[in-house]
Structures are given as C-alpha cells and as structure tokens.
Design a protein that fits this description.
Distance between the termini of chain A: 80 Å
Helix content of chain A: 40-55%
Largest sheet of chain A: 6 strands, parallel
Shape of chain A: elongated
Number of helices of chain A: 12
Largest interface: A-B, 51 and 50 residues
Oligomer: homodimer
Strand content of chain A: 5-15%
Number of strands of chain A: 12
Radius of gyration of chain A: 26 Å
Chain lengths: 343, 343
DNA sequence: TTTTTTATGTAAAACGTTTTACAAGTGCTC
DNA sequence: GAGCACTTGTAAAACGTTTTACATAAAAAA
C-alpha cells in the first residue's frame, strides 16, 4: 500500500492532476460536478496532500518557529498557548525553539527560516539571532520576525509586551501607597530591555515620590525562584533592611517569600513582597502574591497575528504594541504601619 | 537577491549539483580537494540547503509532532523540554500540538504525519487520534508513535511513564505509615489509564492494610487547581471527614490545600495532603507539598529516543518503559496522632 | 601490456505538488 | 453566422534537493 497521491485521485476520477489540485484549492476554477467527484474520490481514498511538496512549490512552509528560553516556564507556557491558538486558526503550525538561553540555539532555530522550514520567527529574546553583515542588520534582508516581551533594539521589528516601565511605576506606587519608603528590588536579566525598563520605572516612581534609591538593596536575578531565595538571604543579613521587596518575576517573589519565611520573617508583617508576571500559582502561595499581571496569552496571540500579517505581506500598524497590565493586590503586601507595629 | 541554491554553489565551484550534494552529505564520495572548494563556496555564499526539497526527495521531514493537552501545564512543560533536547541532538525538530484536550485537535495534529509534515508522534493522550478501519487499528498501518504518561491501549505502541499503580501504593503507604486510616482521593481524568492505575494502586494498598475504601471520599477531578478546591470544599461539608487527602496531581493538591486553609483547616494539622507529579512549585507552597515526583524530563527524553529509533527502523526493546518515581516527603503530611490531638 | 579495481564526477530522474499558458467547448451578442 | 467572452479542463514547467546508474581516469593487479 504505497501512499496515495494526487495522481491516484486524478486517475480514479479520470481528470488531470491539475484539475484535482484546482478542485481542492481553488473551488471556483472547476465545475461543481467535477469538484464533487474529486472530493468524493479524495475522501474515499483517504488522500492527504503532501504538504512538503506543496510548500516547496509555493515557497511557503506554513510553519513559524517560536524561539523561547524555556517552555516549562509558567509565563512562557501561556504565551506559547496564545501563539498556538492563533497559528492553528490561521493554518500555520508552530515549531518549538527551546533555547535555555543559549545564543547558539537561538541562531540554529532562527536558521530554520533560511532553510525554508519556517516562514517567520517569534523571538522571546533580547538578542538578534542573525549575524550583522557589514553595515549592520537591515530589516528587509531579514525574515519576518516579531519580538515578544523582549526587544532586540533592531529597527523595524515589531514588539509586543506590557509597558514595563509603567508597570514598574504602578507596582512601586502600590508599595509607596502602603507607606513603604524602603524598597528593595530584585531585577531580571539586565541584558534585556524589559528588565531595564522596569528598573527605570522603579527609579522614576521613587524620584517622583522624592525618595532615594538605596543601591544596596538592588539585586540582580534571573527570574528563577532560586534567584529570589538568594537575594532574600543577602538582603536579610544587611544591617539596614528594607520594608518591602519588589521582584521582577513571580517566581523570584515566591522564592523570596520562601526564604524569608524560612528565616522566621513574616510576610507581609515584617516584609511586603511584590511580584511581576501574574502566573497562576501566585494565587496559591501563602500569603498569596501581590503582582503585576501580564496578559500572557494575549501577548502570544498578538505576536502571532502580527507575524502572520508580516508573512502575508501586510505591514503592521504599529511597531510597538503595549498590552495592558494589571495590578493584582493580594496578601503579600500590607501597609507599613502594620510592619512597624510588629517590630 | 534571490535565494542561493545548490545550483549557485555548483556554478560557483564549477562542478555539478550532484557533486555539491555529495560534498555536503556524503563526504567520502568526493575528493578532499573538491569538498573543500564546495564547502568554501557554500560558506561564502551563505548557502543553507532547502530542507523542504530535501525532505520531499528523501521522504523524511525531520519533524515530530508532540500532541499534548496543555504546554502551559507545569508537568507538560518539562516533558516537552526533555523531548526537545533529545530531538535537537538527533537532528529533529518538534512541532507543537497543543490540544486543550480536544479530540478534534488531536486528530488534526496526528494528521501531520499523513501530509508528510512529521515523521512520528509523541502522544500524551489516552485516545488514539486515528479512526479505526474495519477490523480495528493495526499497528503497522500507523505512523511511528509513542505514548507518554498515558496509554491508548492499542497493541504495539510503546509507552513511557512511571508505574502509576506502584506510585499510588507508595503514596498510600506513606499516609498509612503516618497512621492515617481515613483517606480521601481526588482522581484525575478517569478516562485515562494513568488515573485508573493510580486509583487501583490506592485500593490495593488500602486492602493490603485491611482497610475499607470509603467511596464517599472519592472525587473525580481533572488535574487542575480548581478541581482540588472544589473537591476539598465538597469533602469538608460531609459529616464524617477523612484525615488525609491523596490528590492525583500537585496542582489539585495545591488548590485543595488552599481551599482547606481558606476554611480554617490546618494542613497538615487537621488534614494531611499528598500530591502527585513533583512540579517545581510544590516546594514553595505553604506547607510545602509531600508528593510523588515523576522524572518528567526523562519521560520526555525517553519518549523521544524510542520514537526516533522507531522512525529509523529499530524496534524498541520493550513496549512498556517504567521510569522510577520518588516519594518526596515534605510538610503537608504528618502523623495522625498530631491530628487527633488538635481535635 | 592488458585487465581489473578504485576513485571521482555527472546526467538525469524522481519526490508530489501548484500554477501558467493554452485549448476546446459553450453560449451570447450583434 | 461571425465574433467574442466565459467556462472548464489540461500539458508541462517549476520548486530544490537526493540518488541511481553510468562514464572516465587513474591505480593496481595480472
């Protein structure tokens, strides 16, 4: 039983393969009569067109590759879900490019566009996975590409994310509103613009409140729970301690709370903790985590929509898409008065 | 600047395209001299072979599709990571088949093998995504396929998972060992063999201890935190309450604990809670969760290895691969004495 | 020297589609 | 009845590789 191809359907139906193809792809091009016959024969024979052949001919793979540090990350998982949904609805498939942060892998996956395996790239990284020729990267030499959550800084590449700066301002203002003056920060990877923008927002909010930023209380993390634990321990041994900690990811915030509680500190009694991301588990830790929720699925979906438009030749309306974030107040932050009372 | 193809390299080098192809794929087939020239020209021109064309010719897409209910799930994310790593090392790419449990989507993704988009399937579902012809499914009419964590029950399909029955026995024995006699269970989807096997293991362990299973305390969930919350609330209003709850997923256990604590019950003081899966967050909830850890990445990696062997014509050594689970004892379970004391 | 093997290169077919350019038939208009 | 437009169908080229079968030259064996 060799595989059934378009020829078999043509033979079965008594028409040419061109007609079969038209009947399938281009209904108006053949008579209803013929179309019915072809469809029936195709169904009967269980014919599934070979997508490779079609892609080769049309120079469209119908795939996109999403380059992302870690699928297993709560945030990324949701983003991919958003991408996947849109992709399926538009007839595309998604190739997974899990990089663990490795630049080499980022480039390998990006190269799939060069070998016609993928028509475009959704890039959740701050690095451009292509070498710049002399004179720098030129956008129209590049395959269609969209930046999600991150920003490579290369001109002309659409970006979709929350307004990190404003989100950090909102987060900081929440803490300030509770009376906190002494706020520590655990950042993400400072190579990435998102983390830099958040820090920037934090500084602006502090400045606007007329408060100094204590650089002692700035710790550089990398989004993982372990980073939060380490940072928390480092902060706790300092003589002058902050009254609250703003973490640039929920995972770090959760690790941070864990370490604090382990050492006998009460959250939020002794220390308020604020997260960022809005992962589902933030609700379930104790105390539940106050955070800035990102519209993750929507970010993914928007990336996908823009990318498909790009692939199909429409240029995006705007290069920078900010999706709304949301301050979710839960139990891990409380007014400073309460703090002092306990001390 | 049209795309550079094998012809260009051939022209540039002054050899035939056959020679270029050999130089690239089949080093022994050409002289060192020629090979060097070809490689140099290819590099200089930035030649990347069109994978679609190669795949069409060789009838090998180099892709596999992993059909999975939800990438965003903590457990699945890790499994995919394991798959991805092995895939990359063997030169395969992975297509993502996110189904949200929909059978329709499972079939759509499975059909990628029919259209030559994928060479094989890793299936994390308990349903076969192909219609059975008269006479039932025959394994050698099917594309290469491996079952991960689940089992379709179709003969001849390799399965990789933990020994769910034994794992449930271990979990139950842990609770029994702490003195618990009254154990409630929140199951997963009972359509799936894994959940059925776990329940079976639970029953066996209870029976071995000479204890009855109280069917009132059996709740059917679907692995999500919300299911745990609902189940917990349902259990708490019953007159006779168990002293411990065995949840078939950590997510449910976490939801369960959350609901219990919300209603003023102490975990583990009033109620011990046991999970299943060993997701990273289990460490970070309060109290930290006792659970059965699955070797998720290894499960993924093994699925992938077996699938690639299958694709490449080697038949698997064994159809049923059990990977070792591990009982991770944390704070959410405690001896019954403590329970009674508080009451 | 002649014959046989080995090394290296190539022409051409094949993979399974899509699409262009053309042909033939049908009906309509004037 | 000629001219025209429209409808429907088809032959054949093209997409960019891999691979088979063969050719030639050089080296080895006789």
């Amino acid at each position: 039983m060799s595989k059934v191809g378009i020829k078999d359907i043509a033979a079965e139906t008594g028409v040419s393969i061109a007609t079969v193809s038209h009947a399938l792809r281009n209904p108006g091009r053949v008579s209803d009569e013929t179309r019915r016959k072809v469809l029936a024969a195709a169904k009967k024979a269980g014919y599934t067109p070979n997508r490779l052949a079609a892609s080769l001919r049309t120079a469209r793979s119908g795939n996109i590759v999403v380059i992302i540090p870690d699928v297993a990350d709560s945030l990324n998982g949701k983003i991919i879900t958003g991408i996947e949904n849109v992709a399926r609805s538009r007839g595309y498939s998604v190739l997974l490019g899990n990089t663990q942060g490795s630049e080499k892998r980022e480039r390998e996956f990006a190269a799939m566009t060069l070998s016609s395996q993928a028509d475009g790239i959704i890039l959740m990284s701050h690095r451009m996975p292509f070498s710049a020729p002399a004179g720098g990267l030129v956008i129209d030499k590049l395959p269609p590409i969209v930046n999600g959550c991150e920003n490579t800084g290369v001109d002309g590449i659409p970006c979709v994310s929350v307004d990190d700066r404003q989100a950090a301002i909102d987060a900081t203002n929440h803490l300030l509103g509770l009376g906190h003056r002494e706020i520590a920060v655990i950042t993400g990877d400072m190579e990435s613009a998102s983390s830099r923008n958040r820090l920037q927002g934090f500084r602006e909010a502090m400045q606007a409140a007329g408060l100094p930023v204590n650089e002692h209380w700035l710790t550089y993390g990398n989004y993982l729970p372990g980073d939060g634990e380490i940072a928390a321990r480092k902060l706790m041994v300092q003589k002058d301690r902050p009254t609250s900690i703003f973490c640039f990811s929920d995972e770090m915030a959760i690790g941070c709370m864990h370490a604090l509680q382990e050492q006998g500190f009460k959250v939020p009694g002794d220390m308020s903790v604020m997260g960022f991301d809005g992962i589902p588990f933030a609700r379930y830790v104790t105390p539940s985590l106050t955070t800035i929720a990102q519209p993750t699925e929507e970010i993914g979906a928007n990336c996908a929509r823009i990318l498909f438009d790009l692939i199909e030749g429409k240029s995006p309306e705007t290069l920078q898409t900010f999706l709304p974030h949301e301050l979710v107040v839960r139990e891990s932050t409380s007014p400073i008065e309460q703090n002092r009372a306990r001390k």
